[in-house]
Amino acid sequence: MSICGLEGHADPAASTSAMRLLANGQPPLLVPLSAYLILELPSSIPRMVGRRVRASVLARVDERDVHFVDAHAGRISRETRKVLRLASWDLKDRFRGAMEERSREVKGAEEMEKKALRAKECFTPASWATHR
Is residue 27 domain-shared with residue 73, that is, in the same domain? Predict the structure, then answer.
């Protein structure tokens, strides 16, 4: 075979007969691929995402007469709760950090107090007789 003969087979888009074969081969490939996607879709989507989508679709079917003000009030209340939750987490984290720092300071002060009491005992006149 010559190189020119291979060029025609290497590029199927160049020949019209190859294009007709590809066009005829697409429906048999498309049907199993579509069936596979439909059957595997429930297992490929995480459950919580599927539940949220289902709940939102069902909620939209039930609430056909949602007014502009009500929809935005609901959205704003959700966003406000989210912001407040994030702020409370930040505040809790700061409080926890401050309490840990305070407990370290208290522990250091208690150790210093113990050392100071031992030093005080060494320098009291009553303990001089026992240490000589």
Answer: no
